[in-house]
Amino acid sequence: MGLWKRDWTPAQINARMADNMAGLLGIAVTEIGAEALHATMPVDARHAQPFGLLHGGASVVLSETLGTLACIMTLPEHQRAVGIEVNANHMAGVKQGQSVTAICRPLHTGARTHVWQTEIRRADGKLACVSRLTCAVVDA
């Protein structure tokens, strides 16, 4: 199974997210790759700041959602992930009416902490945001 210890599908993850913040923002996992988790998110009124661009907080929600999911997917059933720090650097604006894609990859997968990096890109491929999430690994 490689990196992933839980045999989840994008459909199962998306169903689990349907009634929480990720679902409310339209975040959808599209692929579970060998070393990365892929997702999309629309940019509409729910995601925009007052000037019609993607709100940085929405990018952070996308990053934390993917990082936490990815971390949990690498852990055995008796362990969970708890986000303890997230940061984001915003490089380019994304106009309302567009969508973004995200790829979340591990930077560190230790016994007690993990660090996951998410790159968020506009439809033209330009990097809009890069964000890192640190998770504590705890017993369930």
UniProtKB/TrEMBL annotation:
Domain of life from the UniProt record: Bacteria
Entry protein name: Hotdog fold thioesterase
CDD domains, alphabetized: PaaI_thioesterase
Pfam families: 4HBT (PF03061)
Keywords for this protein: Hydrolase
Gene3D superfamilies: Hotdog Thioesterase
Thioesterase domain sequence ranges: 51-129
Entry's family note: Belongs to the thioesterase PaaI family.
